[in-house]
Automatic annotation (TrEMBL):
It comes from Emergencia timonensis. The active site is at E53. This is PhzF family phenazine biosynthesis protein. The keyword Isomerase applies. It holds the Pfam family PhzC-PhzF. GO terms for molecular function: isomerase activity. The keyword Isomerase applies. Belongs to the PhzF family. Keywords: Isomerase. Coiled coil: none annotated.
Length: 297
C-alpha cells in the first residue's frame, strides 16, 4: 500500500479584505524536508481544488521559499494572486511574521516579497515589451475574438504584448461599458493566445473614478481560465504598459479594479520604480483565509 503524504492546504481569497471577494487560490504547504510531488500529481491536485491556480510551497530556510504554480491544466511560471495568498497563508500559520522580507524562488526568477501590516507587496519579474499589435487586420481580429468594440477614433492606444513574469496582451477599451459588455469567443481566444505565445488577454479601460487608475478584465482560456477576478502579473504588466505610454511616471502608484463583472471585486495596487534602463514593478494586496485543512496525496 502506497504511503500517503499529508500536506496542509488553505483556500485564500487574494486582493481583498472580504471573504468571497478578490481571486481565490489554493495553497498547499509541503511538510518540512519534503520535496515536490510529480508534475502530474500537482496538476491533478490543482484540478481537484478547482481554482484557477494552486501554489505549492517548499520552505528552504527562514523567510526563503520555493513556490511552484499549477492551473488545472499545466504549470505556469508565476501567479500574482496565488503569491499574495501564499504569503498571507504563511503569515496566518506563523511560518513568517508580519513586517518582514522574504525571498520567493519561482520559475520566473527569484522575487522579493515585503510584508507590511498584513499587506503583501511582491516584485514582478523584470518587465519586457515583447511586441505591439500594429497591423489593422490583426487589431480587428483581436477585438472580434474578444467580442469587443474597436473604435480607432476613441481608442488611441495600441494593444501590446507585455510580460512581468507571464506574457499577456494588453488590450485598451474606450469605456467601462465596453469593458463590461465584452464576451470573448473562448475557443478562438485559446487559439489566438497559442499563436501569440501569451497566457491570455488583459483588457482595460482608463474610464475610471478619480482615485482609480483603471478597470480591467482578464481572460486565459488556453490555461482553462475563462475569466479571472484578480491577476497580479497581468496588472504588473499593465503598469509597465502605462509607463511606456506615459500614462504613469517613473515612480508612480496605480490602483486597478478587476473582477466586477464576476461579482468578485478586487483591488490590486502596483508601484513602479524606473531609473534609466532599470525598472522594478511591485504588485500588492491583502487576502482572507477562507478555509484550511489537510490534503492526502
Amino acid at each position: 500500500m502506497r504511503r500517503m503524504s499529508h500536506m496542509k492546504f488553505l483556500i485564500v481569497d487574494a486582493f481583498t479584505e472580504t471573504a468571497f471577494g478578490g481571486n481565490p487560490a489554493g495553497v498547499v504547504i509541503l511538510p518540512e524536508n519534503a520535496d515536490f510531488s510529480s508534475d502530474e500529481t500537482m496538476v491533478k491536485t490543482a484540478a481537484e481544488l478547482r481554482y484557477s491556480e494552486t501554489a505549492f510551497i517548499k520552505k528552504l530556510a527562514d523567510n526563503e521559499f520555493k513556490i511552484r504554480y499549477f492551473t488545472p491544466a499545466a504549470e505556469v511560471d508565476l501567479c500574482g494572486h496565488a503569491t499574495i495568498g501564499s504569503f498571507c497563508a504563511l503569515m496566518h500559520l506563523g511560518i513568517v511574521s508580519d513586517n518582514c522580507r522574504c525571498i520567493n524562488h519561482t520559475l520566473a526568477g527569484d522575487l522579493c516579497i515585503d510584508i507590511k501590516d498584513g499587506f503583501v507587496m511582491m516584485d514582478m519579474a523584470s518587465p519586457v515589451e515583447i511586441a505591439a499589435i500594429e497591423d489593422e487586420a490583426a487589431i480587428k481580429e483581436l477585438y472580434e475574438v474578444m467580442g469587443a468594440v474597436y473604435d480607432p477614433a476613441k481608442i488611441k492606444l495600441l494593444p501590446k504584448l507585455i510580460s512581468t513574469g507571464l506574457p499577456d496582451i494588453m488590450m485598451p477599451l474606450a469605456s467601462q461599458r465596453d469593458l463590461n459588455a465584452m464576451e470573448p469567443d473562448m475557443k478562438a481566444l485559446s487559439a489566438l493566445s497559442a499563436r501569440y505565445e501569451v497566457t491570455g488577454v488583459h483588457a482595460f479601460t482608463l474610464d475610471a473614478e478619480d482615485d482609480i487608475t483603471a478597470h480591467a478584465r482578464n481572460f486565459a482560456p488556453l490555461y482553462d481560465i475563462d475569466e479571472e477576478a484578480a491577476t497580479g502579473t497581468s496588472n504588473g504588466a499593465l503598469t509597465y504598459y502605462f509607463y511606456l505610454n506615459k500614462i504613469v511616471q517613473a515612480k508612480d502608484h496605480c490602483k486597478i479594479i478587476q473582477g466586477e463583472k464576476m461579482n468578485r471585486p478586487s483591488v490590486i495596487l502596483t508601484e513602479i520604480n524606473a531609473e534609466g534602463t532599470d525598472c522594478l514593478i511591485k504588485v500588492g494586496g491583502s487576502a482572507v483565509i477562507l478555509a484550511e485543512g489537510e490534503i492526502n496525496i
